[in-house]
Amino acid sequence: MNAQTETLTMAGPAGQIELAVDRPEAASRGTAVIAHPHPLHGGTLTNKVVQTLARACVLAGWTAVRFNFRGVGASEGVYDEGRGELDDLLAVVAAQASEGPLCLAGFSFGAFVTSHAAARLHTSRDIQRLVLIGTAASRFEVAPVPAELHTRTLVVHGEQDDTVPLPSVMDWARPQVLPVTVVPGGGHFFHGQLPMLRELVLRHLRA
User: Fold this and answer.
1) Segment 115-159, tens digit of pLDDT
2) In the chain, which end has fewer C-beta atoms inside a 10 angstrom radius, N or C?
3) Extended strands (E) in 98-163
4) Domain ranges of the chain
5) What's the rounded Cα separation, in Å, for the pair 104 and 128?
6) How does 38-75 read in b/e, with b if 16+ C-beta sit within 10 Å?
């Protein structure tokens, strides 16, 4: 993402996991772990939306940790339909954000995996912020957001997303009475609207 990005690998449940870490200039408020889109459809830690999330986190004072799911880039293993990918995310949290304030963020398939990580971790970790972008509710069983995290959660979706139709996300959010921020005219990848997306996330992280 920038010249200061630190790339490294760590041991994961299916072998080595590739990481990219960006740090704020001042003391870090905590660690944000960011999950990328579908591994079988070109999703990687360098995805533009994922980089936008990382940039917003760093600007808000968080250490941003992006990682490649198993079978992507230098990460070992093979695609596991979300089950192993959840294990990967939890391993990254355990190794890179073992204590202190935690922010979980994900885009598309990554938002689906992040929803399950939040459900798993919310009773044991201080999840300060949850950010779900382009949540893949039409394709996967997205976990409901724990009630106590609702005020700390930002859900953003493009009005004209043709990968994950907006109604599917509304159907997931409605029973929870969980607000969804809709970007007018926005597509799945927010082409031309990434600065707006960054500002929405930055505003949420600073609130």
Assistant:
1) 999 999 999 999 999 999 999 999 999 999 999 999 999 999 999
2) C
3) 102-107, 127-133, 153-158
4) 6-206
5) 8
6) bbeeebbbebebbbbbbbbbbbbbbbbbbbbbbbbbeb
What does the block give as tokens for 44?
A: 């990687």
Hey, what are 191's tokens?
A: 């082409």
Using alpha carbons only, what angle is made at residue 134 by residues 93 and 174, rounded to the nearest 5 degrees? 100
Say if CB 12 and CB 77 are below 8 A apart. Answer: yes
11-70 pLDDT tens trace: 999 999 999 999 999 999 999 999 999 999 999 999 999 999 999 999 999 999 999 999
What does CATH list as the number for 6-206? 3.40.50.1820
Q: How far apart are CA 148 and CA 157, in angstroms?
A: 22
